[in-house]
Amino acid sequence: MAGLGLWMAFICVCLVSVSALLQRLEHPVKADGSLSLVVIGDWGRKGTYNQSEVSTQMGRVAAKLNIDFVVSTGDNFYDDGLTGIDDPAFENSFSKIYTAKSLQKQWYNVLGNHDYRGDVEAQLNPILQNIDPRWICQRSFIVDTEIAEFFFVDTTPFVDKYFLTPKEHKYDWRGVLPREKYLSELLKDLEIALKDSSANWKIVVGHHPVRSIGHHGDTQELIRQLLPILEANNVDMYINGHDHCLEHISSTSSQIQFLTSGGGSKAWKGDIDKERRDGVKFYYDGQGFMSLELEQNNAKVVYYDIFGEVLHAVNLFKGLRSVSAI
Questions:
Q1: Active site residue ranges
Q2: Which of 19, 187, 199, 295 could lock onto 149 through a cystine, CB 3.0 to 4.6 A?
Q3: pLDDT single digits (tens) 200-240
Q4: pTM of the model as a whole
């Protein structure tokens, strides 16, 4: 019976349109029009580095919130992605770790830079849904939930150093080259989709941060190429991973809230830029995850550590464009 319920939940997710790079998926909201989810990033380490502990607390919070789906901000499989569709890391880092009943919902995943070091086509292959039907991973796509639209963006190809100075790493650029054409079409499709969106909340998800005071810091390529589009189209939140921490930074020039959830496993203690504090509301250099609850006119973001303790909470009020931290 549980399997039937799971299948019925997943069948509600349907493809409704296709553009050059952005497929649009629909996901239903709750009967009262609200939506809740959890967000995790930088997690795939076969349960090590407290990945299993984070999973346990995610399951508890997800049950309490009765979440609708899970968002992954990338770096799904360390250190070098998947080797193929039959790589046991898929089950050992995903299916066998996130076992709570409350997490048996759709997972929407973007690729991180570590995923690009493996067989990218494997992670994108729908055959993985035969192993675990929760798995949806595409380069860039849209999830339409009526109350909000989530714009998932493939950020790794934006970053120059992966092409110019890859060091000993090899990246799977199939489907990305020629790079300039790929990025141009992606930005164009994203801009059109954002302009056309009538959703109450516009939320963009990528792996790399736009703003961060963690190990990697700001991603300059995204500041130059992506941020102007986000600001011009009234995006409410940009959610990312990459930096192995939890943080909340409010834009000083727009309404955008920059939300990092990259604490799914290995964290970097003490790796913080203490000089750049403009807009910083919260920073935690440890493992954990984030939840998001959405209603028509308000949203609540909460960060949790590996013990399930609340570290930081943010209330966003639509229309008033105000932010209150708890």
A1: 216
A2: 199
A3: 999 999 999 999 999 999 999 999 999 999 999 999 999 99
A4: 0.93
